[in-house]
Protein 1
Amino acid sequence: MNFIDLHCHILPGIDDGPKTLKESLEMARIFEEAGYSHVVATPHAVPGTTWMPKPGEIRDLLAELKHAIAKEGTRLNVLPGREIALDPQISALIANSRVQTLAGTSYVLIELPFQRLLLGWEHVIFDVLSKGFAVLLAHPERCAQLTAKPHLCDQLIESGVYFQVNGTVFWDIMAARLRKWLSIWPPKDSFTAWPPTATMRKAEMPGRCDGRQKALKN
């Protein structure tokens, strides 16, 4: 089975992803070994900061990485994209080709803030939708306002917005359920210990939201 990663910081030296081409190539090898055939490179786009590289710079880095991947014989196709911070300028940035959609499709990956959503955030998202784009929200489980008010998740989903939730959320939910199960199990010397506790962090997304995510259509 081939997998596709729509949100990947794989380009070297451009944001908080890999620092060197060597590290990017190691990521590509790991992706291939895990069964991925395509990943979309989504460097950050944060208006008003240094994380707003020009499209030409991204194209050059992508071409360099694709050439290096092919030279190594790794079978991974890396496609262009951006992770765009929630900002009133999003529609204008897309219209002026300052930022890229996911792999040249109509899907736009938008990153939410970690705490409160900006004033008028609904208008920003719906403005993008009204331009004919599909919105994919990156890791909404990190946004404190959404986790505190899960009805907002329902409203977004009903409006046609898609969620990209980090896989660790589902592992955390499974770990929480396992802890509950173990709490009623016979004495601890009768079973093998659970793997390292790093996998057992508290789930970040309320149950009402974690089961309602829409899968991105092909």
Protein 2
Amino acid sequence: MVDYQYSKKFKLVAMGRPIEQVKMRMEQEGLDPSVLDLDMNTVGFLNIPEGEEVKYPDGHVEPCCKPGTAPAPTPVAAVAFSASASSVTRKPAARQSMVKPKEETLAPRPKYKHEAKLRPLYWDVLTSKSVVEKSMWFQMNDRDIKLDTAMLDTEFTSKPMTFVLPVAEETKTSDVVNLLDPKREQNVGIAIGRLKVSTQQLHHALLFGDFSVITRENISQLVNAAPTEDEQAACLAFSGDEKKLSSASRFAYELSDIPMVAVRFECCKTIITFDDEVTRIRKIIQVYEANEKMMMNSTGIKQLMKLILAIGNYLNGESARGGAWGFKINLLSKLSQTKTADGQMLRRLYGLDPAEYAGCALYYPAGDMGVTELLLLRVQTDDQLETVQAAAQQRLDTQTNTFAGYAPEQYALCKDGSAIVIKGQDVMFVISADKDAAVRAFRAVHSGRAGA
């Protein structure tokens, strides 16, 4: 009897891999290559993982049990042993599965009900009671935020989408043979077109670890272009004219006689980039630790999280995502994907084209008497900072003049509750009774990003 890991080597030989290459690889891995001289139909395997099957060339499967349908354990005295010329097989007893205790979850918060169908905010809801109770979310009440629901209903209304089906183009017959799927053919063709070494040089370098050929400059392209196991199997099974192969298929074909080509390229990449990766990860850890301290001590960031939670719960309404106690932090990088129904408000209110900037978020009053407003905008060049600052100042002057003389509260808010803040490539314009909290949150978030 032999260990289960040898079954994979038998499988490679059955797929057409030259037995001498498989034996050479087994010697490198510390395995006994003479095992491949045995007849797989009579070889027994030990340590077969639960639920795994070994398929033999003659069609039978060992062991004949699948997860959830395993037979009852056989008493030791009744275990049948079958002897053959080269092995003894013993039926393994079924393992008793461990049942993980169910985690206690919190009931959702009260959900918003609204008539309009709004664009949802796709977040990962935190439901674990033990997780939420130990986090800032448990002490946070999103209903403390006074939302301008009329504006949200107007700007985030879900509009019906129409689709135009493409017309199938007539395919032309070609003598070129493609062993890869069309997308892989295109991607591999682009990658190898940039290489300055031949496939024969790569073949030799991959077998003997020649890092003068496999370099920092081309290793990423080689990893992306390396043939997968299925592609290697298709190449090994090809018996036609090699000259008719496409450039991408020929690249895969000429490398496929090397065992585990993709894994070898990945190992080369690890060796080449190891020191750089260590330095990069250390910097990430330092930034993470600094941002963690800032997050724990910043009231501005907690207020910002509460605002996002309130808006998200309103947009998600009575759906499964609504009534959330909290959300996973990965949502912050996806916020720009939730866009208003009308993307032209920046142009109408500020005279700016959103396509010319790296990012933009705009909150503005829906009613004529509303004045609370927030603009967050990231420029692409330093020259745009002056343009954005002038546009924000003009918007503030317009609002101030609009309410002068007949709406004293709105006029006072424009005078005392407004700010234009520039940090790096980011600009914030705000008119709000909570101006100071908004400014603190903006500066705190930007400081964390600057540390990165």
